[in-house]
Every structure is written in C-alpha cells, then in structure tokens.
Amino acid sequence: MTAPRLEIDLDKIRHNALTLVQRLARHGISVTGVTKAVLGSPEVAGAMLDGGASGLGDSRIENIEVMRAAHVRGPMTLIRTPMLSQVKRVVAGANVSFNTEIDVIDALSSAAGKAGVVHGVVLMVELGDLREGILPGDLAHMVRQVLRLPNILLKGIGGNLACASGVVPDARNMAELSALADTIDASFGLLLQTISGGNSASLDWALSGADTGRINDLRLGEAILLGREPLHRQPIKGLHSDAAVLVAEVIEAKLKPSEPWGDIAQTAFGGKPREQDHGPMTRLLLAVGHQDTDPGGLVPPAGIELLGASSDHLIVRAEKITVAVGDEIRFQPNYAALLRAMTSPFVVKRLTTRAPEMARLCQMARVSGMRNSGRVV
C-alpha cells in the first residue's frame, strides 16, 4: 500500500463528536465541528455532523467551497476574519463569518446585497490571548455600526483563547464574555443567538461544572479529530486518540554509530545535533519529512525513538525490535503534524468507515481523488 499515508477512521471521529456533543449538551452548549485541519474533508465533515455537531467551521473559504461542492449539509461558518479580496466568495459559501473589522463587514454587506442574501456575523472579542478580537471597550461602538448595515445579521459574539499566547479559558474570561453579551442585549434591545466560547481548549472549563453563563457554542477540531485537549495535550477520557494515524515506510535500516563524526555545523533546518554516544544502533530512514508533516509532532510506537528529520527523511532508532526495509511504522500525529500531513500532496489520505452512507462518500472521494491527484485511496 502507498506510503506515506494518513489513515483516518471516520467511525472514531463520529464517536468522538457524539461523545462531546452529549457531554456539552448537559451544559447547554452546542458543538461546531472545525474542519480546517483536514482541509474541509467532506467525509470528516459528514462524520462530525453525524455525531451531532450543529454546524461546521473552517478558517479557509476554499475548504468551505469544497464541502459545498460535495453537498455537505448544515450551516457553515468562516472562523477567520474574511479577507477583503474574498468577500464575494464568503457570502456565497458561508452562512456566517467571524469578524473584527468594520471595513470588512461593510464589504460583506455590499457583497451580500448584490448576491441577494443576508450574511450572518459573529463579532470576535479580545479576551487576552492577543490574536483576533475587538477590545471589550470598543464592542458597543462596533455593534452600533454593524446594526446600521443592510444584508448583515448580527448573530452573536465570540472569543478565542490558548492559540497565540496560551491564555487558559477560565471562569474569569468566560464570565467576561457572558457579561458582554448581556450588556449588548440590554443596550441594543437584542437577543444574541450565538455566544461562542472558544475552541477545544475551552473543554476543561466547560465540563468542570462551572457556571457556563451565556456560552452556548464551542468550536471543536482537535478534541474531535485526535481525542485530546490542547492545553496539556492529554487524552480525553472516553474518546479515541487514534482516529488519525500517519504511516511511513522504511527505506534504510542499518547498524551505525550513534554519534556523527567530522566538523559539526548547522543541520538543514537549523540547530546542531546533540546526540550522546550510545554505541552502535539500528538507525532507520523513513520516507517522510518536514515537507510532509511536523516530525516533532509524531508519537512513535513502543520500541521506536525519534532522532531527527530532514526535508524528506525521518530518522528513528529501533530498540529491541527488528525492522526491515519496506516495513511500515505507524505514528500518532499531534494537531500540527496532522494539519501539515493533510496539506502535503505527497501524503495519501485513506478514509475508512463501516457505516454504509459514509462508505459511499469515501468511494466518491476515491473516484474524485484518483481523477484529480491520485492521492486519495
């Protein structure tokens, strides 16, 4: 079978989505399934929706267009502030977009009017992580401007934490978001529909038994796809952490010294090797590298130790196991490794399921993949 490849188990993704949907429903919170790490895969999107996700979110309009073309059902949200150059595509493909700039919303208003649609907007609020967001003190002014625009529906407000600066979602910042929603409603006579409390990093807070206030939506990608929470990268009880596996083929297996020799300078990707002398060891070369994934985000199986990587090679050490050229080694990717592997045209994507409808979608993807790139199997 062709390698390197990503093996994605849609049944496990569906299970993870369903489990999280059920747990959060007890706290009045729905789930938006985030598909950006899988390039808007219609099959993965379908598994999330089958698991009870109320809609789908993606940061790239291109991915949303892929899902639309595949007739994926359900509302879709662009969860990155739209580019001015893409507003026509945004109102055509996305029901809702997250926004922080009035110039962009004004352009969305114009594009929506020309398209004869009403476009939903969620205003993102800065809660301390210093990525996107309107400062809380400026939110009322922004709301006032948005309400004046035709063809725009203010759907709600949201926040994002733990991405740029690692700020932890907690009772304080989540309560601040709820309080802002109450203030906006009272000031403008509204009832905001969506109060989006962040991404998978917000799960610990949401499921802790704390008062969730007005928060009624979380955007979940990593937790569904990998069964882990992003704050400490720990497995979530009851979820599958092996729904996605990266498989690489061994192209060299030799007994070599454990230390390099000669004058040492920087490696191809910077830095210098700091290997200790452990005597001769079986060093394996695998046909996968930085061009295919994030090597540092791969968790090897027992008996295999990661040593390094270059553009096209992963170097590992085999301990007390016998591996030959042509053998395959299976790694669990973290979020960064999954994202880059999905993006690489050199990594085959193999989707599996036991559900009849999902199997049909997989077959459609295989036909489309063979026609377009030959990389989906």
Structural class computed from helices and strand pairing: alpha/beta
CATH architecture of the largest domain: Alpha-Beta Barrel
How many H/I helical runs? 11
- Number of β-strand runs: 16
CATH topology of the largest domain: TIM Barrel
Structural domain count = 2
Q: Which class of the largest domain in CATH terms?
A: Alpha Beta
Quote the average pLDDT. 93
Helix content: 25-40%
For the biggest sheet, the summary is: 8 strands, mixed
User: How would the global form be characterised?
Assistant: elongated
Distance between the termini: 9 Å
Beta-strand portion reads: 15-25%
Name of the CATH superfamily of the largest domain: Alanine racemase
* Low-pLDDT regions: 365-377
Q: What is the N-to-C succession of helices and strands?
A: EHEHEHEHEHEHEHEHEHEEEEEEHEH
Radius of gyration: 23 Å
